[in-house]
Amino acid sequence: MFKFFNRVKTVVGSELNAMLDKAEDPVKMLEQFMRDMENDIRDAESAVAKQIANEKMLKRKYDDAQAMVEKRMSQAEKAIEAGDEDLARRAIEDKNNQQEQADQMKESYERAKKDSEQLRTKLDEMKKEYQEMKLKKDSLKARAESAQTRTKMNRTMSDIGSDESRQGFERMEEKVMQYEAEAETSEDLRSDNRSLDDEFDALDKKDSVDDELAALKKKMNKE
């Protein structure tokens, strides 16, 4: 369990760049690394909890055995005071047996306590390393996303400035200029036509005025 965690940590630490080069999606790979670490930490917490429970069980057995030693010793003293050496002897014999069990329980308890402390220390180290890797993962994730965005923008800008795009733009510009030229030509033709029509309209108006003026003169002379 701890070896696997250390292997993942090593990959994320010293070999990360090489793996990111091969990975199709660095962000997903980083997320997977973190999930693996989280699973390792949960397994370690479970192992530590079991070890602590074992330590407490051995401590309780040691305390019970030691209490029995003290009880038998007290009973032996009481038997001697009562003048019953046989009872005192049996109490002392059982006290010695209980002492042997107490010594064994004490040795097992102290070993279990030491193992618990070592496991707690390793678990704390794992959690600390996990937090360090989490910060590094967040930084690398941001860098990867930023790099991907820049790459996408650069590709887009490259496409915009490509020869094909530029030629297409120039072709459309020429079409617009052609449309403008055609519009100006049609306006010139229309202007010429209007000038000719205006002259005939003016001529008609002049004839009408002359006719009206002649009629007026004729009327006035007649009167």
Automatic annotation (TrEMBL):
The question of whether Coiled coil is a record keyword is answered with yes
**Listed Basic and acidic residues bias regions:** 134-144, 163-174
Residues of the region (Disordered) are 94-117, 134-174
Example GO molecular function: protein kinase binding
Q: Which domain of life does this protein belong to?
A: Bacteria
- One Pfam annotation reads PspA_IM30
Residue spans making up a coiled coil are: 27-54
Bias-annotated ranges (Polar residues):
146-159
Q: What keywords are assigned to this protein? A: Coiled coil
Tell me which InterPro entries the record gives. Answer: PspA_VIPP1
Its family remark reads: Belongs to the PspA/Vipp/IM30 family.
**PANTHER family this protein is in?**
MEMBRANE-ASSOCIATED PROTEIN VIPP1, CHLOROPLASTIC (PTHR31088), PHAGE SHOCK PROTEIN A (PTHR31088:SF6)
In Swiss-Prot or TrEMBL terms, this protein is called Phage shock protein A (PspA) family protein
Q: What is the lineage of its organism?
A: Bacteria, Bacillati, Bacillota, Bacilli, Bacillales
